[in-house]
Amino acid sequence: MRILIVNNFAFVTGGADLHCLQLAEGLRARGHEVELLATADPMNRDHHGAFVPAIVTNTSRGQLGAVAALNVALQALWNPSAARATRSVIERFRPDVAHLHKLYVQLSVSPVVTAARHRVPLLQTVHDYEFTAASSTDATGGWIDRVEPKASYRLLNTLLYVLKRTVHRPRVSEWISVSRSTAAIYEANGINTTVLPNFTLSPFAPRRLPAFTERTGLLYVGRLSEEKGILDVLELARQMPRLPIRLAGGGPLQGLVTETAQRHSNLEYLGNLEPKGVAAELLRARIAIMPSLWREPGPLAALEAMAHGVPIIAYANGGLAEYVADAGAGIVIDPSAVRLARAAGELYENEERWLELAQRGPEAVKTTHSFERYLDKLEEIYARLAQVTSATTNDPREGGRR
Questions:
Q1: Same topology for domains 2-199+370-398 and 212-366, yes or no?
Q2: 100-156 pLDDT, tens per residue?
Q3: Quick one: pLDDT band at residue 50, thresholds 50, 70, 90?
Q4: How far apart are CA 379 and CA 98, in angstroms?
Q5: What is the pLDDT of residue 398?
Q6: How far apart are the first and last CA of the chain?
Q7: How far apart are CA 81 and CA 89, in angstroms?
Q8: CA angle 354, 357, 358 (to 5 degrees)
Q9: CA 252 to CA 142: how far, in whole Å?
Q10: Residue 76 to residues 55, 83, 107, 117, 168: CA-CA distances in angstroms?
Q11: pLDDT tens readout for residues 336-392
Q12: Tens of pLDDT along 307-335?
C-alpha cells in the first residue's frame, strides 16, 4: 500500500514524532511505500515526502512582533504551503491512506481539507485531547484554553479547537486512540475510536537487565511542569532524604528543580538527556516515578521503563495508569505526595516485590505493546479504509477513480 503520514515534525520533539518515524520505518520494512508530510528542518530523520517551512519554533515563539504573530496565527488556521504540498504529494504519490497525527500549529487544517477533496481516506491517531478540548491536556472537554500561559496562544488554541470540531473532525474516516482511557474520553465527545496501545522498540534495552542490588535511586524523566507532577517529586525529595532521586528533562520549572537540587543532597538534576542517556539511567535506577496529574493517553516513557525492567510508581490517571496496571509492572496510587513517598519507600527496600514487578514490564512490551502486533492491527485498518474508498471511487455514479 501507499501511505502518507502527516505530522508536524520529521525529527523527535516528543513521543508523537518518534511514533511516526518508527511507524514509517516499520511499514517500509513490511513492503509498503511510505512518505511524510511534515516541516523542513536540518534535524529531520526521514526525507521521503514533502516538507514545508515551519511557521514558528519554540525559540522564535517568544520573540515574535505583532505582525509576525498575526501571520503565525493565520497560517495556523490555514497554511497555504501545506495545502500546496499536500496536493502535490497526492497527485504524485497517490496514497491509499493519509495517516494523520499532530498537525497544529505548523501544518494547520489545510492537509485535511486538501486530502479529503482528493478522496484520500483519513485516519487520525489521537495522542492527546486536542479534538475534544481547546487545550490538548484537558480531558474535561473545555471549549476555552485556560492552560497555555500566553494569552494570545490561549486565544489561538481556542479558535483552532472550533476549526478542529467543524472542519477537521467531520473529514476523518476512522480514529485510533492509544488507550481505553483515551477512547472513553473521545467516545463521550461523540468520536468512536479503535484502541491500539502504543509500542516501543527500546533499541538500548540489553538482554540481561541489572538485578535489584545493582540498581539504586528513583528516576523521573519527562517535562518539568506542574501537570507532570514535578512538584510532588520535589516534595518526595524533602520527605525522603534517604532516597537518592534523579531528574532528567526540561521545561518551565527547570529553575525550581535546579534550585531544589542545590538544597537537597539526595536530589540530582541531570538536565536533558539523549535517548541513549535515558536508557543508561533506566538501567541504573531501581524505580521510575511518574506522578502525572493529567490523563496521559499512552506515554512512551512508561513503556521504556518497562522494557528496561524498572518498576513504575504512577498516579491513577489516564493511559499511564492503564499501561502500568494492565502489565502489573508497577504500583498505581491516588495522586498525593504523601502516598508517593510511602509507596516509594516501601518498594525501594522490598526486593521480592520489586522483582515481581520488574519481570512483568519486559513481558508486556513483548506482547501487549509489541511493534509487530501494532503493525498487524494497523494494516487491517489501512486495508479496510482503502477497500471502502476503492469501492466508492469505482462506482460509475462517482465518476471513476480519483
A1: yes
A2: 999 999 999 999 999 999 999 999 999 999 999 999 999 999 999 998 888 888 999
A3: very high
A4: 13
A5: 44
A6: 16
A7: 12
A8: 80
A9: 23
A10: 8, 12, 7, 20, 13
A11: 999 999 999 999 999 999 999 999 999 999 999 999 999 999 999 999 999 876 665
A12: 999 999 999 999 999 999 999 999 999 99
Three-state DSSP class for 77?
helix
Class assignment of domain 212-366? alpha beta
Confidence of residue 70 (pLDDT cuts 50, 70, 90): confident
Cell numbers 496536493: residue: 87
Identify the CATH assignment for 2-199+370-398 out of 3.40.190.290, 3.40.50.2000, 3.20.20.70, 3.30.1490.20.
Answer: 3.40.50.2000
Residue found under cell 536533558: 272
> Which DSSP helix (H) or strand (E) runs through 91?
helix 80-93
Q: What average pLDDT does the segment 236-247 reach?
A: 97
Q: How many CA atoms lie within 13 A of 257 on its CB side?
A: 27
Contact residues for 112 (Cβ-Cβ < 8 A; gap 6+): 100, 103, 122, 167, 168, 171, 172
172 near 122, Cβ under 8 Å? yes
The residue ranges of every structural domain in the chain are 2-199+370-398, 212-366
H/E stretch holding 126: strand 122-126
**Using DSSP, how many helices (H) and how many strands (E) does the chain show?**
16, 13
Contact 347, 329 (CB under 8 A): no
Residue with cell 538527556: 273
Q: Please state, rounded to an integer, the average pLDDT across all residues of the chain.
A: 93
Candidates 270, 263, 309, 311; CA nearest to 287 is 311
Let me know: does 3 contact 73? Beta carbons within 8 Å. Answer: no
Reduced to 3 states, what is the DSSP secondary structure of residue 160?
helix
pLDDT reading at 277 higher than 80 = yes
Q: How far apart are CA 55 and CA 107, in angstroms?
A: 8
Q: Note the pLDDT of residue 273.
A: 95
Instruction: Please compute the mean of the pLDDT values over residues 27-37 and round it to a whole number.
Output: 98
DSSP state of 137: T
How many C-beta atoms surround the C-beta of residue 236 within 10 A? 26
Using a CB cutoff of 8 Å and minimum separation of 24, what contacts does 141-150 make? 141/185, 141/188, 141/189, 147/227, 149/252
Place of cell 485516519: 123
